[in-house]
Design goal:
- The radius of gyration is 15 Å and the shape is globular.
- Helices cover 30% and strands 19% of the residues.
- The N and C termini lie far apart (37 Å).
- By secondary structure, the protein is of the alpha+beta class.
- Strands 1-2-3-4-5-6-7 form a 7-stranded antiparallel beta sheet.
- The chain has one domain.
Length: 152
Amino acid sequence: MTRFTAGVEHVLRRAGWVPHRRVDISRWKASVPEFDWHAAAEDFLTEFGGLRVDIDGPGTTCVREPFEFDPDLAVGEEERFADLSDRYGHRFFPLGEVGQGEFFLAIDEQSVVYLVATAVLRHGSVDLALEQLITGVAPERLSPPPTGATFN
C-alpha cells in the first residue's frame, strides 16, 4: 500500500518531495525561535519543509489553492499563534501559508494539521491533510472551548 493516492503523490513529487526526503531545518530553528517548537513540527518540516505546491481549480468540496511549507512566512505572528494555542489548548506551530496568505498552515504536537487565521480549521493527520489540501477537501472549523476551560 502506498502512502498517498497516485494523484496526490504526483503533485507532491512535482513540488520536489520524494519518499524519505530529509532537509536541514536548522535555518528555521534559528529564524523562528519564538514559536513553540515540538517534535511534530520538526518531523514535518524535515520531510516537507521548503515545498511549494502550485495547484488551483475546483476541488472535491472547496477550491484548490497553492500552499507553501516555510515557517518564516509567519514571522511577526508569534502572538497570534500563542493566543490561539492558549485558546484552543493545542501547541500550534506555523508550517507555512495557503493561497495568498489568507490562512497559515500549522501543526500541533499530535501531528494534526490546521488552517489558522482568526479562526482555526482542522484538516487532520499529516497524510490526510496533504490529501485534502491537494484534492480540495474543506477542513473542519473548530469551536473554541468554553472560557475558563483548563488543559493538561
